[in-house]
Structure formats: structure tokens, C-alpha cells
Amino acid sequence: MSIVKVSQLGKTFRLKQKAPGLWGSLQAVWRPVMQEITAVHNVSFSLEEGEMLAFIGPNGAGKSTTIKMLAGILHPSQGQASVLGYTPWQQRRQMAYHIGSVFGQKPQLWYHLPAEDTFRLFARIYELDMKQYQERRDFLVEAFEIGHLLQTPVRKLSLGQRMKCEIAASLLHRPRVIFLDEPTIGLDVIAKQQIREAIRTLNASENTTIFLTSHDAGDVESLCRRVIVINHGRIIFDDRTSVLKRQFLRRKIIDVRFAEPLEEPFALPGATVLKQGSYGVKLEFDNRTLPVEQVIQQLMATKPCTDINVSDPAMEEIIREIYQEE
Amino acid sequence: MSKLHTLALKYGAITAINLQNQLAYIWDAFHRAFFIVVVMFIFTQLWTAVFQAQGVAVINGLTLANTIWYFLVAEMIEMGKFRHDLTISEEVKDGSIAYTLVRPYNYLAYHFFNGLGETVVKMGILFVAGSLVCYYYAGPPTAQLSHLPAVFFSLILAILLDFCFLSMIGLLAFVTEDTGSFRLIYQKLIFILGGLLIPIDFLPDWLQTIARALPFAAITYAPAKLFVAFSWAEFGQLLTGQLVWLVLAGGLLYAQYRWAARRLLVNGG
């Protein structure tokens, strides 16, 4: 049975436009020019219980607006949605007991108090009894490895430590659906991995439905079997992650620094040279026809390497490829 | 657990966390205590000079000692009240309203009980520290113990009424970019017509009539006046004003909240 159903959902904003400078400001007061902006347009999809869905797209694509409508914060301009049978923006409070949300760029823990104080507050707000709360807290403390952090004022925690506590706080009331909006933004590799691991545990042990937005291809690949790509407020891809990877994440970028200067222009059949300096080169290639290991072997054979960096193309590149495919 | 008990625990916890938070800012408390001592010292000097210049012991029913204690209560209310209008507009600006709006509580009640935790600490400190100055210059307050519950009740209504007005200003942040100007106007009205600059009893008759009819007097003037010169007749009058304005402002706030919630624009991300 679908636990989240969205059909034809749309949101338009009216934004005040202002010409630059003081004169522009005066004009905007006298005669404001309003511009209609469509943030989300005719978005439809559904989610099964226990599914982990990645909702990705470039900045300003409408990801957060969609999440905010599903969490009940924004009223849509058109269309319907139901989350656990509730209409989010009409039955916000009833729904709140069963959903959890994490907004990676926004704090919810009390800054000057230890995280556990906020945890206790949430236990009251979500009407947990103390025994329930303690069990749950112990479970989350283990999943996120935050046992040693709970008594420290939040302002003294590192970003990674804080984020783990932030996410745990959103899960205290055992939400059946979790909206994660950029949960790993700005974190180091280890913190990212711990958070992904904890989310996976939660999904496996409680069949929690996860709705994730992220700019991090790693989050998407390691957590979600299904991906929706949204751009300019429209869904442009909705399929399994493996399909996205096979079709669009096949390009890799390698950035190399050599210990000695290159005497002649670097060339490797099958790879495009994006940039070349005397000590370094940046290559792009198709991972299917030219495996990464082969490229690295070639590079190491050319000159001794001091640094090699393999990366995926940016989200924008992937989206451009999806468009080109169509 | 009964429904009522659950609710009491919920909103009680919301009050308690801000109480804890205030204690984390203990230096802030000292700073505030110092400030009220300075303010009360200045007021004391100023009004002593006024009473001397007039050469009278009582002006429109208030003695010098009454006037000094009056200002302590008025300043305590003004400086000790919580500024959740700022919190709301911050929440809209930085987007953290995405968290605070979707929890299972009433959003406005959340802000009220949260602010209560702050205001209890603030007003407590202001009153205790300011009392030292007042006691030194004006002697003990003349309020009778038996009247204090009534004064306290009027203080609670004042806090509620102020909460309604500041909520309306705060909720404007849902639809407009900046609420600072509304806040400024409101503050100035309290200052002049609310009896914070000068007790309303000292205003010219025509202005007194206007000021007494407006809600600003119900916020600062009412509790302060009842504390220094209590009479059941005036209590009845001021309380009626407070209740009427509370019903009006509460109704307006409710309508505005329903209207604004549909129009919320959240910044960022």
C-alpha cells in the first residue's frame, strides 16, 4: 500500500521584483512588480512503506518546496498529497506524531543546552512515556554513536557530532516516514558514513520510509534503490538508482598531480583532457568503456603521481545528460 | 495518563527548557540586574526633583514613593517581557520554522509557554535588583498582601495581551519581509500611552481618557498602578479593560493565524 501519494502537486510563489539601487527600492515601494514563480509543477509519484527514495536535483529545483508541502509547512497551489492517509497541510498536528524531518542546514537543538535536554523536551512534545523514551534514546544513542555527546552543550559539538544528535532528535518518536533534507551537508566522510549506516539500520529494523534529498551522490547510491530527479519543478527521471547510474553516472573525472613536470601534451585514448598544467592533468572518461583502474595504471606509468582524485560529475552534469538523452 | 495531564507535561516542558536556557545565560542576568539598578536610580533622581519642584507630597493620587515603585513594575514588564515576535521572524528568515511549525503542539501556545520560561526569570531578576534601589530611596512598597493575588492576576492578563499583540506583529513575518517597523511603533505606543514614560495619572485629562481606553494601558499601566495604589474600584475598571482587549486581540490573532498559515513563504533551501 502506498504510504505517500502525490498527484499533480504544484506551488507557485509571487515574488516582489526590485531594480538595483536606491531608486529601484523606491519604485518597488511605490509600484511593486510581482513575478509569478513556479517552484513545483505537476509533480506526481508514490512511495511504498519501507521504501528509501532519493529526491535529487540542482539548487532551486523544487526539492525543498516539495518536502515542505509534504511535511505540512507550505500549502500547495494545486494538486493533492497524502502522507500516511493525512493531508499534510490540513492535518498537520495529527500527522506530526508519525513523521520526522531533518533539515540539514537548520538547527533544532537548543544551542546552549546539552542535546539530552532537547531530547527530553521532544519526549514530552510527542507524548512519549518516560520508559518508551529511554528505550528509544538508548537505541538511537547506539545507532548514531552519540552516547558521549549527550551531556555536552550543543554549541561545543563539532558539526558532524551535532548533526548526528539533530537527526537522532527527529527520530525519538518513531516516525514511520522520515523526510531528510540534505542530512549530510558539510560533513566529513566518516560522519557521512555513520549517518548513512544509522539510517540503513533504522530502515531495516523498523521498515521506516525514507524520503531523502541530497547533493551527495554517495548518499543516494548507498541508501536509495529509487531516485527521482527534479529540475525546474518537474520530474525528469523516476526509476531505480542502478538505472540512473548505468545511464547517467557513467562518467568519471580524474584529477592528477605528478611529481615531475610533463614534457609533452598528455593524451589517453578514450579520455578527454579537461585541463592540463605542467604538473597536473584533469581527465573525463566513460567508466564503461574505460575502467577507472586502467586510467590510473596509465597515469602511474606516465610519471610518478603525488595525488589522484576520482570524482563524479556534478549533479548539474547528470541532469544535462538526462536532458540530452531525451 | 489523562489528556489534560499530557498537555500539562507538554507545555510545562516547553516552559522548563527556556527556564534552563536562561540559566545558561547567567551573565546576561547580571547585566540586566545592573541595568535596572541604573534605570531606577535615574528615575528616582528625576521624580524626586519633580516632586520637590512642585512642592507637593501627592500628585494626582500618587506619592513619590508610589511613583518610584510604579516605575519599577512598569519597567519590569517592559524589559522582562519575551520577544517572541523576533523569534518568529527569525524562524521565518532562517527557515527553522520548518521544524517549529510541524510539531504536535499549537504553534502560538508553544511560543507563549516557551516565552513564559524566559519571562519568569527575567522579571524575577529585574524586580529583585530594582527593589533594592526603590527600597533605599522610597521605603517598602505600600501594597497589602491581600491585594497581591489580584495584582498578580492583572499582570498575567497583561502578559497575555502583550503576547497577542507581539504575536500579530511576529506573524506578519509570514507575509512581509521585515516586521521591525511595526514593532517600533508598538513599542513607542506602549511608551507614551501605556504609562511607561509617565504614569497615566499625570497626563492631561483628555489624554488620560484616551490612554485608558486604549489597550496599551492594559499592558504596562494596569499592573503597575494596582501594585502601588490598589482599590477594588480601579481593579474592576482596569480588569474589564484588560479582558475586553484580550478577547478582541485574541480573536484577531486567531483569524490572522489562520490567514497567515496559508500564505507562509519559507526562505532558503
Structure explained in plain terms:
The complex is a heterodimer of chains A (326) and B (269). With 326 residues, chain A is α/β, with parallel strands linked by helices. Chain A contains 11 helices and 13 strands. Chain A has a 6-stranded mixed β-sheet, sandwiched between helices. In chain A, helix 5 (130-144) packs antiparallel against helix 6 (159-171). In chain B, 77% of the residues lie in helices and 1% in strands. Chain B has 11 helices and 2 strands; from the N terminus they run ααββααααααααα. Chain B has helices at residues 3-24, 26-54, 64-80, 84-94, 97-100, 107-138, 148-171, 180-193, 205-213, 215-228, 232-263; strands at residues 58-59, 62-63. A two-stranded antiparallel sheet of chain B has the order 1-2. Chain B is globular and about 60 Å long. The mean pLDDT of chain B is 92. At the A-B interface, helix 3, strand 5 and helix 4 of A face helix 1, helix 5 and helix 11 of B.
